[in-house]
Amino acid sequence: MSLHRLLQLVACAGAAAILSAPVPSGAQDQAAVDTATEEVRDEDALTCWWRTTAGAVRVGEVFSLVLTCAVLETDEVQVVPEESRLDPTAIQFPPFDVVGGSRASDILEPPHRFLQYRYNLRLITDDRFGLDARVPEMAIAYRVRSRSTDGALSEGRDQTYQLPALPVRILSTVPDEATDIRDGGGDRFEVIDSRMFAGSVLRVAGVLSLALAAFAALAAVLAGIGRLRARKPARERRVPGWLVRLGVSRELAGIQRERAVTAWTPELVDRALSAARIVAAGLVSAPIAVLPAAAGAASGRGRVVVPASWRGRRRA
Description:
Blueprint (H helix, E strand, L loop, with lengths): L2 H18 L4 H18 L3 E7 L3 E2 L5 E10 L4 E5 L15 E7 L3 E3 L2 E11 L9 E4 L2 E10 L5 E3 L3 E5 L2 E5 L18 H43 L9 H21 L4 H18 L33
Parallel strand pairs: 2-12
Antiparallel strand pairs: 1-3, 3-7, 4-9, 5-7, 6-7, 8-12, 9-10, 9-11
């Protein structure tokens, strides 16, 4: 075999060994992170937009520039923007002066987290009348954190999201590059939160008002029923016939027990005659007058005290 052919065989064997060798775990993880980062970038992991609260301003007039970002945030992938550069105390928008600002509370709407900054700007110059003053382009740096199969978070390389320049007309209503008239639609997160809180308070107040109204209506109905019962004649408060028969039966049984112990007395005879009269009236279907019994009333003199209700709280 020639020397040239031998060298070719050795080179092929070395290349096959290199290709078949296992890839280190660190390289695999980094490759997985890079792949996940590319996939997340393709799915718009970070989307930002901004608007001004006024389409046209005067020199020295303070207006607001609102920056809103939708950040992808799931269990597997987290996008982390560099928010330290977005703080109102650190950011600059030449030729505008930053005179203040604030950061709104985040709103979590899976799979995104929305964050918002508000910057108070003004322009002090005398050479911009009737012209457009541009809010300069802004680059937002961010990183993508991906969770591997073993649960560890791996952070990808730095990436940048570029926001275009935003023109603001000085003493005009429409910038030169505008394709339509801008409308100040949409409110800031603070305004939305305050309105949601006010709506919750009004909803609770409405429920309490309805509950109080229902309670007042129920009290009025109960009071009306009480007045009707008070005005209803006593004779109309009928006592069931079975209660009358039960009371008379108990009265006769009591008379029999007392007669077994003592002799006939005028009171005992009076009670027996009263009970017998009611029994006779029931046999001939004669009307029996039923009246409420006063406290301490006893049978006799043509009347028998019976229970007026099945619970025995009232007597007749």
